Amino acid sequence: MRILFTGGGSGGHFFPILAVVRELKEVAEREQILDLELFYMGPDDYGRDMLREEGVMVIRVMSGKMRRYVSMRNIMDVFKTGAGIVTAFWNTFLIMPDVVFSKGGYGALPAVIVSAIFRIPLIIHESDAVPGKVNMFSRSIATRIAIAFPGAAAFFPKEKTALVGVPIRARILGGLRETARENFDLFSDVPVLGIIGASQGATAINDTTLGILKELTDAYEVIHQTGQKNYEEVRGEAKVTLEFTHKERYHPFGFFDETQMRDFYTASDLIVSRAGASSIFEIAAHGKPTILIPLAGAAQDHQRKNAYEYAGEGGAVIVEEGNLTPHILYAEIKKLMDDPAKRKRMGESAKNFARTDSAQIIAKEILKLGVH
Fold first, then answer.
1. Where would I find the H helices in the chain?
2. Helices 302-311 and 277-285 sit at what angle, rounded to 10 degrees?
3. What is the pLDDT of residues 235-244, one digit of tens each?
C-alpha cells in the first residue's frame, strides 16, 4: 500500500503529518500490513529530515502562495504552481498511491489537483476553525474530511466530514513533572510560566515579554521559546535586563525538540501562546490554562477564530495582539497565577476539549480507504 502525504511548510502543517505517519506505521504493524510505502510531496524543506528518519520518501514540487494583496510575486507564483502540478503529475504517475492525505496549505495544491486527475481517494484535514483556501478548494473532490474545531463543519459537506481534533505526536504527551523541572533547571518553589510563539517564534510576544521580564522573574520561573532566528537577540536583551536580579529563573530556548516540548508543557503552570491549532490542541492535551495571543493578520483570521472557539470552552483567556502591552500581559498573568482555583478549572476544561486519538482515527481511515 502506498500513501502520499502533502501540505504546506509550517510546523502547523508538518507536525500533524508526522503524527499521522508514526501512527500509520504502528497501526499497519498491528494489522500486519507489510507492504506500506510512505511518500511526502511539498515545496518546502521544513521537517524533511524528520520524515526521512521515519522512512518517508520526500518529493519536492514547487507551489506558489495565494496572497491576499497585490504583488508581482502573485504572477510568478502562478507559473510556479503550474510547474509544480506538472512535477506532481509525473511523480504521482510513477508512485500511483492508493490514498492521498492532504494537510492543506499552499504546498498541497499540486498533489490535490493531481489526485483528482488520477481519481485517487483523498483525505483532507483542516486544523483551523475557518478553513484555508486549499482545503476549501479540496472539499468537493475529497473522499473524507477531518476537522479539528466544531465551527469548521459549516464549511464542508456533512456526509463526509468528521470532528477528530488535531493529530498530536505521542512523544510530546505524558511526562513527569519532577523530571521536566530538572531538565529545565527549575529549582525554586515559585510557579512556572511557559511562553511559546509557535514553531518559529513570535516577535510581538518576545518584545512584550522582555518589557516585563524583571517583574516576571521576581515572581516566577520563566521558560521562553523565542524562535531560532530571534534567540540570540532575545537572550542578549534579557541578559542586560536581568543583570542584577533573578537571571537564574529565566530559561530561553530557540526551538524545542520533542522531549523539551513535552517537558515544557509538563512543567508549566500557565502558558502564554499563539493560537495556532496545533498549539491549542497540544496545550489542551496537557490540561494547561492558557493566555492566547492570536496572530493579527493571519489568513482568514484563523488564529483569532481558533482562540475564541477554544476560549468559549473555558480553557483559555485571550489578549488581542492589538491590545498587547507589557502592562496588560503582566496583569493577565498575575491575575491567573494568583487564582489557583481558576487555573484548575481552566485546566479541566482544556482536558475536556482535548482529543489525543486524532492521529489514530485518521491512520485507520487512510488504511481503510487504501485496501478498497
1. 11-30, 48-53, 72-95, 109-117, 133-138, 177-183, 203-211, 213-219, 231-241, 258-267, 277-285, 302-311, 326-337, 340-353, 358-370
2. 20
3. 999 999 998 8
* β-sheet with 37-42: strand ranges across: 57-60, 37-42, 2-6, 99-102, 122-126, 144-147, 161-163
Position 200 pLDDT exceeds 80? no
Please tell me the distance from the alpha carbon of residue 344 to that of residue 90, in angstroms, as a whole number.
54
What one-letter code names the amino acid at 257?
D
Give residue 353's Cα distance to chain centre. 16
CA distance 213 to 139: 46
| Nine-digit cell string for 315 | 480553557
As given in the structure block, the three cell numbers for residue 30 are: 498491528
Task: Classify 88 as helix, strand or coil.
Answer: helix
* The C-alpha cell that represents 210 in the structure block: 522582555
Q: Tell me how crowded residue 187 is: count the other CB atoms within 10 A of its CB.
A: 10
Which of 57-61, 70-74, 296-300 tops mean pLDDT? 57-61
Cβ pair 305, 275 in contact under 8 A:
no
What torsion, rounded to 10 degrees, do the Cα atoms 149, 8, 203, 280 define? 20
Coil vs helix vs strand at 224: strand
Query: Do residues 86 and 102 make contact, with C-beta atoms less than 8 angstroms apart?
Result: no
Domains of the chain (ranges; CATH) run 2-168+356-370 (3.40.50.2000), 171-353 (3.40.50.2000)
How does the average pLDDT of the chain come out, rounded? Answer: 92
pLDDT over 90 (residue 19): yes
CA nearest neighbour of 15 among 285, 231, 252: 285
A 10 A CB-CB count for 188 gives: 12
pLDDT digits (tens, 9 = 90+) for 62-92: 876 665 555 666 667 677 788 889 999 999 9
In angstroms, the CA 76 to CA 56 distance is 30
Q: Could you tell me which residues come within 8 angstroms of residue 304 by beta carbon, excluding any fewer than 6 positions away?
A: 275, 294, 296, 298, 320
CA distance linking residue 253 with residue 196, whole number of Å:
10
Q: Nearest 5°: phi and psi at 125? A: -125, 130
Q: How far is CA 350 from the centre of its chain?
A: 16
